[in-house]
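Input structure tokens:
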């Protein structure tokens, strides 16, 4: 029983790490100047991202942080 729980937790952690790695990679693709944020200009490469930009930009600073970008739905 305990072993199954350990396996389940391990799988969850691995899945989470994979999802995060994919998200980081996607973020890096948009952040072409490696500033650590995605500007409107950088978002223009993806129509869906540009459409959601204002909604995703929670602090309204005109750039998307990795945390704000994490809420982007495709
Ligand atoms: Ca940038």
């Amino acid at each position: 029983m305990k072993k199954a729980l350990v396996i389940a937790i391990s799988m969850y952690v691995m899945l989470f790490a994979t999802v995060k790695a994919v998200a980081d990679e996607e973020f890096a693709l948009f952040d072409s100047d490696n500033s650590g944020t995605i500007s409107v200009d950088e978002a223009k490469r993806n129509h869906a991202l540009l459409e959601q930009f204002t909604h995703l930009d929670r602090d309204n600073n005109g750039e998307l942080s990795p945390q704000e970008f994490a809420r982007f739905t495709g």
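The radius of gyration is 16 Å. The pocket of calcium ion is lined by residues 31, 33, 35, 37-39, 42 (CB under 6 Å).
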